[in-house]
Each structure stands twice: as C-alpha cells, then as structure tokens.
Amino acid sequence: MLNTIGKPVHWVRDLAALRTITDSQRHAILTELIRRPMTARELAAVLQLPQTKLYYHLKLLEQHGYIAVVDERLAHGIVERRYSAVARSFRIDHALIGAGNASAAVEVTTALLDATALDLRARSNIGDESIVARTLPRLSRARYRELHTQLHALIAEFNDDANDAGGSRASLTIALFPNEETNP
C-alpha cells in the first residue's frame, strides 16, 4: 500500500523541475517516498547515502513540488521531518517536450540517457541478467501504437506498489520514438 499524499498523478510542466528528477539519487529518493513517507535518517539507511547529502536533494525535490513534509516531531532537540511524494506517479506534460519544443525533448532525453550511462558505469558487474539493447524496427502506425501501449503497461506492472519488499533495486530506461519523419 502506498502512503503518498495528494493525487495519483503529478504533471511535470517545466524544464527545471524535470531536470531535478533526472538525477539518479533524486530519482531514487522520490521512488522511496512514493512507497512510504520517510525521514532523512530513514532514507539514508535505505539508500545507503550520507544523511547530510540527502538534505540538499530533499530541498530541491520539495522546491519543485515533488515531495512535501507530512509530519514534524522533536527528536533529541532536533526537528525531524517526514517527507512523502505528492503523488503516486509523475508524468511529463507532452507540451514540455512536444513537437513545438524539440530542443527541450532532446535535452530531457539526453539527460535521462546520460543518467543511465552514469549508473551503468558505477556498476562493477553488469552481469548476464542485464539487458542493454538498441533496435531499429520498421513498424506500421498500428504496430508502433501497440508497442507504445505494451511498454506503458509493462512499466506500470513492475512499478506499482506490489514491488517485492525484499527485492533488489533495478533500473529501467526506455526510449521509444519515431526514427523517421514519416513514422508514427
């Protein structure tokens, strides 16, 4: 069961806010806060990051409206804040990266792929269970829409609140886009 506040979907409508979550650590923080509200101390333990480093990321996420303080309490003379994601899901407004804003689309895609590349470089062993692939299939408009729909469903299935509680974190980056002007 997810313990998020607010709404089921939060729309990302500006580039600065979008850049905030392309950072791998902030993305991981947001993912954890979608699952359940946590303090910086709890997040530090789960993500195995120094607590002091988390405050910077939490501040940025809060400034851009991704998270909010849902509880405060005094613990050992210090105000401890519990944060939660403001929504269960975050979606990019198509107007932000749509046809009229090609440079933003390229910037966003590049930032996401760069973050993925950094994550891959940080792993000492990618292993046989990883998939890194690029393919350029020829698809009719109908088949393209079918693939688009299936990818969305697959992402939703493995990104819902039924994640394996004791499982290991996995990373998934998908880019599906028409490669020719005449394509879907």
What CATH first level of the largest domain would be assigned? Answer: Mainly Alpha
Strand order of the largest sheet: 2-4-3
CATH superfamily of the largest domain: Winged helix-like DNA-binding domain superfamily/Winged helix DNA-binding domain
CATH topology of the largest domain: Arc Repressor Mutant, subunit A
In whole angstroms, the N-to-C terminal distance is: 37 Å
> Rough shape?
globular
Q: Major β-sheet, in short?
A: 3 strands, antiparallel
Provide the β-strand percentage band.
15-25%
Helix share bin: 40-55%
CATH architectural label of the largest domain: Orthogonal Bundle
Number of strands: 5
- Specify the number of helices: 7
Order of helices and strands: EHHEHHEEEHHH
**Count of the domains:** 2
Oligomer: single chain
